Structure prediction request, 197 residues.
Amino acid sequence: MNKKLAAALSGGAVLITALTGCGSDGGGPDPKLGVWAKKVCDAVPAQYTKIKAANAGIAKIASDSDLPPKTAKETYAQAFQDMSDGYKAIATAINGAGAPPGVDGGAKRQQDAVKNLNSLATSYADLKKKVDGLDTKDQGKFAKGLHEVADQTKEIGRQSSSGTEALKRLEQGDVKEAIAEQQSCKVSASAPPAAKS
Prediction:
């Protein structure tokens, strides 16, 4: 059961790498766009680390079938809270940076990304509430509750795909180049070898 949940969550960091795994084509973007990209990228590494650690915690539970239900519950709850906080913070950074300057349709692309990230944050917060309500004293009820949580994570996986697409749309053209030049985005992109795109 835990393995099913971990598998459903394993792509959590993919969304962040949509913002970070890009290379520069040379030439240099508009300096104003560089300032915008710095605002976004400076917020990414800490949140990326938080989301990556949450995924690692869930994967660890999946490999430990002898883990007491109370410990499993606490670990899942913390992981979902960290994912919620991480995605919300990235949405806040993108929202605070405003629309990327000089980019056609930049405002819509920015708001689409913010909307998707906030939606993911809310979904993970809802999962955390669900896990908080699980009964660890009854193994049968606990297993059933975890099964329901795993089913919900599949839907969140679809949301994550939409969020990744929204970030890719935001990151096109000069925006991609401006982000590629930010040291903070380079650092977070190189952090997890398995997550590189």
About this structure: Residues 10-14, 22-26, 190-197 have pLDDT under 50 and may be disordered.
